[in-house]
Inverse folding.
């Protein structure tokens, strides 16, 4: 039982050291992720279009 109490006490101590992001930080990170995902998906769609049209022209 002592080990469990010690584990819980240490977990709470470590959790108190965690710095959680603020709402504006979360919003900014979300927008950045959406922009990067959109850019990468457009790039991959363009590469796919070029490769499929090139392959169609060869065949």
């Amino acid at each position: 039982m002592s080990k469990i109490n010690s584990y819980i006490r240490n977990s709470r101590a470590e959790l108190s050291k965690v710095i959680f992001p603020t709402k504006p930080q979360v919003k900014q990170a979300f927008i950045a992720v959406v922009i990067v995902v959109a850019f990468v998906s457009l790039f991959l769609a363009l590469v796919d279009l070029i490769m499929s049209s090139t392959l169609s022209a060869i065949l």
